[in-house]
Amino acid sequence: MKKMILFATGFAVLAMGAVGSSYLSAQQGGGAKTPQMQGTKVAVVNIGYVFSKYKRAQQFKLELEQTLAQPKKDAKVLIDQMDAWQKYIREKGPSLPKSERESIEEKLVQHKRKLEIMDHDIRKLLGRKSEQNLETLWKEVNVCITRVSEAYGFQIVFGYGDPFEKGLMDQFPNINRKMQAMDQGSTVPLYVHGSVDLSKTVADTLNLWLEPQKSVQPTSGSK
């Protein structure tokens, strides 16, 4: 039943814009005046929460971790070898022949250069990939926020960032972050009623859109 409700909600979000446009066109064509909007409905969305729950964002994160897996293994091999050489030099101390010490030191320099090149290449690859992923997610999330807001009649939606773990809300890092933002002139939501927080609705709708479309079977009304 819960999945059916989510599906129906997603369908309503997709269809609301078209229905609303048709209604307004019909009203304007008939010469009727557009009803005056009674006040402005404002909502908020915790962008961090949406990104953490959105399955496409989770998939992007997994792909980046998989991209890093082999380079991490390769780097560990080099680092372990460097640690072993340095330990050997310390243990031998003055008794280590000069030629052998110089040979080991040269190998250490070579390994260090390899690590620097690996780090540069990975940062370049991940930086480009992360930018592409963020652009994709940002567009999709904003489209969904627009559709959900239109479906529920909100005219303005503000994005904010708060830890979704309750224990972190009142700890110093979060408090200090908010205080600094307000000191710099930013607006920070200090209280948000659940009825105007669209974070979960947006995340659920995004995930619903990812599912392959299925035919809706009539229900008996039982829960």
Structural features, described:
The protein has one domain (2-32, 43-210). 70% of the residues lie in helices and 4% in strands. It is elongated and about 90 Å long. α1 (2-29) packs across α7 (199-210). The protein has helices at 2-29, 47-53, 55-92, 98-152, 166-169, 172-183, 199-210; strands at residues 42-46, 156-160. It contains seven helices and two strands, in the order αβαααβααα. The chain has a two-stranded parallel sheet. With 223 residues, it is mostly helical.
Keywords:
single chain; about 220 residues; mainly alpha; two-stranded parallel sheet; 7 helices; about 5% strand; elongated; disordered N terminus; disordered C terminus
